Amino acid sequence: VQLQASGGGLVQAGGSLRLSCAFSGRTFGGYAMAWFRRAPGKERELVAGITYSGAATDYVDAVKGRFTISRDNAKNTLYLQMTTLKPEDTAVYYCAARRNYDPRWDQSRVDYWGQGTQVTVSS
Predict the structure, then answer these.
(1) Which of 80, 89, 104, 108 has CA atoms 20 to 30 A from the CA of 62?
(2) Distance CA 27, CA 3 (A)
(3) How many CB atoms lie within 10 A of CB 72?
């Protein structure tokens, strides 16, 4: 499996970005997907997760109401729509895939990781 994240960049506070993650090598619909992020000097953390068909989603409290995770199984692509961005959202964002869904999204049980895309929010 390969995961290719894209869409990061530099944006002003209050702005928006949409991240994409292209999935290849297996049946996309057979994997639960998530976005994680690692801010400077901090541990990597879960941002949002989504089940196989997209029927259920999970969000960390810090992004609820501002970020939306979605997927298009026909295009083998995961998305993260980020709005009302804040400087504290600055991080490298990683997409992740897991064969067996668990809303706790234990990082040690992630099967595949993407390479990361940098998001920088200026104040």
Answers:
(1) 108
(2) 12
(3) 12
Tokens of 55: 């029927």
Dist. CA 53–CA 48, nearest whole Å: 15
Residue partners of 101: CB distance under 8 A and separation at least 6:
32, 49, 51, 52
Contact 14, 85 (CB under 8 A): yes
User: CB within 8 A of 106, min separation 6: which ones?
Assistant: none
What is each CA distance from 91 to 48, 97, 116, in whole angstroms? 14, 19, 9
The pLDDT tens digits for 57-74 are: 999 999 999 999 999 999
Q: pLDDT tens across 47-57, in order?
A: 999 999 999 99
